[in-house]
Amino acid sequence: MGKQIVIDPVTRIEGHSKITIQLDENGSVADAQFHVTQYRGFEKFIEGRPFYEMPGIMGRICGICTISHSMASAKACDQIMAVSVPYTARKLRRIVNLASILQSHALSFFYLTSPDFLLGMESNVRKRSIFGLVESHPEIARDGVRLRRFGQQMIEWIAGKRLHPTWIVPGGVGAPLTDEIRQRILAEIPGIYQLLRRNIDWFKRAMEDYQQEIRTFGNFPSMFMGLVDNRTGGLEMYSGILRIMDERGNIIEPGFKPKEYASYIGEAVEPWSFMKFPYFKGRGYPEGIYRVGPLARLNIVDTCGTPRANQEWAEFRQLDRRVVLSSFYFHYARLIECVYAVERIEQLLEEPDILNKKVRAIAEPNRSEGVGVTEAPRGTLIHHYKVDDQGRITWANLIVSTNHNNLAMNRSVQQVAHRYVDGANLTEGMLNRVEAVIRAYDPCLSCSTHAQNQVAMHVQLIGPDGTLLDEAVRE
Amino acid sequence: MAVRSRIKTLKIDGRDVSAHEDETILQIAEENGIFIPTLCRIEGLSLIGACRLCLIEVKGWNRLVPACHTHAEEGMEVFTDTERLRNYRRMIIELLFSEGNHVCAVCVSNGNCELQYLAQRLGMDHVRFPNMQPVRKVDMTHERFVLDRNRCVLCARCIRVCDEIEGAHTWDMRGRGIDARVITDLDIPWGDSETCTSCGKCVNVCPVGAIVEKGRAVGEMTKRKDFLVYLSKMREAKK
């Protein structure tokens, strides 16, 4: 058996993971895997809790995507209550969801990923971070901070606080919007458009220098999935129907109801990772590989629905024939979605009923089951709960955005390792490229690792000479 | 003017204070702006001295005594804030935290909780005891209210308010030690109780998130406690 390279931890991502690369006797890459090494138990320890506590508890899954989890959770609770959320509350939820996507995309693009492009994949590892960026490209670093702050401030202004607000509640939201806050947000928007324009411009120029990476960074056929607007087929982050597109750009599932997700998506377990492997049931495992998130969303939609984003989206669609396959373009898609988010927020804030005070429907649990689906920054997020007749949770299942991309991330790691890693002359830059392809997916591992009925485990005892002494497998 | 009772002079934390002989040290301290923590005590209900947070030291006495049940004596020297007391009080709070499920971040009473306030005020920065967290089912059978025994601190305020003010005596205590729990009627689901008038007094006196209104999100459960003093005074006046 050849040598094994372990990248542990994978840096500049959210959560804990490692990558192992297996070399053969000649030092060439034989295989590579992306492991999630942390473990959480949300699906289990919420059993017995009142359903309406879920948005507050589930938001705690993650500090970045707290809004996304609370949102999907509240939507599942809306169904359990069998209420129709007031229009204004729905719009306010949309605004905060988009604000969350904006801040998360800013974090992924500027803080975590842009050091790779601006300083170089092989640049000094000590400088290759947001701090290095502050020294070398202060104006871009400042833009990144400003964009993230804008998203976070909107959340604070509307929902009460930046981190773990409890304003998203079953049946609506906790408090209406005030005109003062509406004006404050609208006043900042023109500057944010300019900020996005100049950063998209430099990134498009930079992409020309990364043609090799574009060809090998997770560039493989896969299906794509995400929400689309059920009337226009346009970009949709809060509700709508789920659409699946194949690797040739054919829409194979034009739109199924989110609550029917289990008929389309299966979940497989591997002994070497705490993260589940969802797959499209129509093709089985592991052939049913699909991707979610910004790249998937911009592939599957018929329109972005807003003028500035549509213009950029038209260029995006020209990148490849029929469907954009390289995961490198996740970054570009993220920036386009930022434009969309700001445009949609502006539209929603201009709606005549946005300041309406009726923002919460109150009801008992009237159904025994609820499924809430939204688009989180990283992709489709599914919360599914069952309750007893008193409204206490008896069962829960979460499929988190990063889960959907698990198969694709593993495929991408293998592709990049094969292309760039040379076991005989190993450099840090080679390994950074393997990490960089993971960063393209902006995985959030604290979100994605969840309880199964039984935890898959594979323990190996390896002697000092590398021989396997003993192993135990629990599947 | 009728003489209420004799006046006693004593020292609290080195300060000379005077008080009526039927006043407790807790009352005297509060009149003089001296803080003594309490949890089971609530103005308007009888005193039970159960939580032991108001323990004080008295010079010449071997035992610590609860301020809520100790009356003023001539020449007494009382200490309310010694290292020994601070340690005991923190330990009491830690034991409460270690026994139930007191995760403030996701609790409906977050920010409006007396246990949380005391933990902060008494400087609890960690819990040195392992979590017990016995599984206690949440009772959601009542139409409007919820009983979550995981958050109950057994202060018995609900029992007292229901008995002394509402007069229904729906609530009671059952079991001992870790098995002690508040019950409705003869330990039947709250929603099935025939004595409960659904007045909501127990909800308002509960210091934590154990008895709350249904459907409240994290941090949304605020409680009104002033009604109790008002009700007691009105009843006194009628007599």
Written account of the structure:
The complex is a heterodimer of chains A (475) and B (239). Chain A is an alpha+beta fold. Chain A has one domain (4-458): Cytochrome-c3 Hydrogenase, chain B (Orthogonal Bundle). Helices cover 42% and strands 18% of the residues of chain A. In chain A, the strands form 6 sheets. In chain A, strands 8-7-6-11 form a 4-stranded mixed sheet. In chain A, helix 6 (138-159) packs antiparallel against helix 7 (179-207). The radius of gyration of chain A is 22 Å and the shape is globular. Chain A starts with a strand and ends with a strand. In chain A, 51% of the residues are buried. By secondary structure, chain B is of the alpha+beta class. Chain B is built from 6 helices and 9 strands, in the order ββαβββααβαββαβα. Chain B has helices at residues 25-31, 83-99, 114-121, 157-166, 201-205, 226-238; strands at 7-12, 15-20, 55-58, 65-66, 77-79, 145-147, 171-174, 181-184, 211-213. In chain B, the strands form 3 sheets. Chain B has a 5-stranded mixed sheet with strand order 2-1-5-3-4, with helices on one face. A two-stranded antiparallel sheet of chain B has the order 6-9. Chain B is globular and about 55 Å long. The A-B interface holds A 48-50, 52-53, 55-57, 60, 164, 166, 169-170, 174, 362, 364, 390-392 and B 105-106, 108, 135, 137-138, 140-141, 146, 148, 214-220.
